Every structure is written in structure tokens, then in C-alpha cells.
Amino acid sequence: MVLSTGFSKLGWFAYHPTFQSLGIAVMVVAIETLQPTATPLSKKLGLVRHQNLQIAALVLLSLGTSTMVINKITHSAPHITTWHASFGLVSYIWLWVQSTIGAASVWWKGVAFGGEVKAKRMWKWHRISGYAMLLWMMATVFLAGEYSDWARGVSGPVFRGLGFGVSLVLVLVGVLGRMRVGKMRFW
Ligand code: HEM
Q: Which residues cross the membrane (predicted)?
């Protein structure tokens, strides 16, 4: 949609859907790289890939969110006026909390949680929160694609249904289908 409108015609806004989509795509690969890891070595390498990809996703999603805020400022438009914007703000804050807790549970041997053993106990919460956050982000994207004036103005219902409905469900089927519920035992 951005490319067919013309990237240069959209000003700061062009970066928002572009970076957010790329960020989510990288985040999904970062999750999949841990689903599942076969050997202790592949687990170790998977964890390194997970961190690098999540840092890349965090950078992309930060650029995507800040360019949207800048876009609103340059047009003197009010902030957080739609469900998409509210869901997006929660997504972005959640992403930082998720990333900070994830990093704190691995970096410096989990000293932030009182050592490696205690830090690893956080992982099941990190897993469940990560999957829940992905669901929330998919809902955020759905709201933008189905209900924003911009999306409705530049594309029809079939294209939006495929891009912001079917494709998001397929991403969820792909990711949640490979989830190992046994790793999240709470009892
Ligand atoms: C990938 C597809 C996306 C599209 C097409 C899209 C599109 C839009 C549009 C058209 C707006 C302005 C209208 C409105 O406020 O509803 C907007 C605002 C916003 N979006 Fe998105 N968005 C996408 C993804 C995301 C994601 C994944 C996040 C969060 C991580 C996000 C966060 C926000 C926020 C916080 C605002 C409001 C900014 C403000 O009010 O200053 N968006 N988006």
C-alpha cells in the first residue's frame, strides 16, 4: 500500500507501516528460531539468534513508532485518538518491558534476578507474555488495516482482508502451532 501510493508522497508516515511490518516480520523469525531447539548447542545458538533478531526488531519498531509520532507532530494532529493508536501504544510499551525482562534474565548471568537459576525461572513468564504480546500486536495491525482512514482510502476490502486478516491468521497459525505448551507449565 505504501509503495503503490508512492513512498516519497507520504512524508514521515511512509516509515510507519514499513518499519512496523518489517519489525514484526523480524520478531516472528526471532521467535521461530527457538521453536524447537533440538540439541544443547542448537539451543545456545538459537538463544543468540533470538537476542540479535529481537534487538533488530526493537530498533525497527522504535523507528516505526517514533516516525508516526513525528508525523502527527508535523501535522499538529492530536495523538492517540483511535483504537489502533491505543493498542499500538500498549504494544510498544509491552515490547520494551518484554525485551528488558528477557535481557535481564540472560545478560550478566541473570544477576538482576539473583543468579542464573532464579533468572531461568522467569523464562516461562517471558514465553507466555511474548506469545500474548504477539497476539496483541496482530490485533493492533488488524485495527490499522481494517479501520484507519488511510488504509480504507488507499485499498479495497478484498486486499485489506487478505493483508490484514488472512495473513495475520496465517502468521498466528505458524507461530502458535509450533508453541510447546509443556514449557509453560504453571502447576
Ligand atoms: C503494520 C501495519 C500498521 C499500519 C498500516 C499502521 C497504520 C497507522 C495509521 C494509519 C495511524 C494513524 C491513525 C491512527 O492513529 O489510528 C497509526 C498510528 C499509530 N500507530 Fe500504527 N500502523 C501499523 C502498525 C503499528 C504497530 C505494530 C504499532 C505498535 C507497535 C503501531 C503504533 C501506532 C501508534 C502508537 C500510533 C499513534 C501515534 C500518535 O497518536 O502519535 N502501529 N498507525
A: 12-34, 55-73, 85-108, 128-145, 157-177
